[in-house]
Specification:
Strand order of the largest sheet: 4-5-3-6-7-2-1-8
Oligomer: single chain
Shape: globular
Helix content: 25-40%
Largest sheet: 8 strands, mixed
Mean pLDDT: 95
Number of domains: 1
Structural class: alpha/beta
Strand content: 15-25%
CATH superfamily: Leucine Aminopeptidase, subunit E, domain 1
Length: 184
């Protein structure tokens, strides 16, 4: 599914984020930028040691913020590392932090003049964020950003399995039906 908002096409796809050809892919990192499991581990394995070398120089990234490194051996030229919140019931500013992780990643892409970016479902894996809420916040943030900024032409949400894709699809349809956006 895809929709065009302003100058930006927002797309959903099921797949492997490490195979993306967008200018940047987003890594759901930890605050230490130390590599880890899930998407983080997959990106570091596929991208090679140059990504970790740059992460070590950067040193860390607070929750809700984003930093950028080389894409190493990936097809994407850059990896934007962002830290989503660990879900602890929803009453500890998790929603604002998750939206900030998406927004700061998008801002960094615009600052670097990157025309395209691919996101995983940030915080929806081992950080325990309920997928439907994570999908709503992710898509809402990207739609709002596209309405206010024209620098990014393509935002892809690469979802690791069909179940997650279906949840994102449902949330995307709901958000599109509440606004005057063109969907394909």
């Amino acid at each position: 599914m895809e929709a065009k908002i302003n100058q930006t096409t927002i797309m959903l796809a099921c797949g492997d984020i490490t195979a993306e050809t967008t200018a940047a892919i987003v890594n759901a990192a930890n605050e230490r930028l130390a590599g880890g499991a899930g998407v983080d581990g997959a990106i570091h394995r596929a991208g090679g040691p140059s990504i970790m070398a740059q992460c070590r120089k950067i040193g860390g990234c607070p929750t809700g913020q984003a930093v950028i490194t080389t894409g190493g051996n990936l097809q994407a030229k850059y990896v934007i590392h962002t830290v989503g919140p660990i879900y602890r019931g929803g009453n500890r500013n998790e929603a604002n932090l998750l939206q900030s992780a998406y927004r700061e990643s998008l801002k960094l892409a615009v600052k670097k003049n990157l025309p395209s970016i691919s996101f995983p479902a940030i915080s929806a894996g081992i950080y325990g964020y309920p997928v439907d809420e994570a999908a709503h916040l992710a898509l809402k943030t990207c739609i709002e950003f596209a309405r206010e900024n024209t620098g990014i032409r393509l935002v892809r949400h690469i979802l690791f399995n069909q179940q997650t894709y279906e949840i994102f699809f449902s949330e995307f349809k709901k958000l599109l039906s509440t606004g005057a956006m063109e969907a394909k």
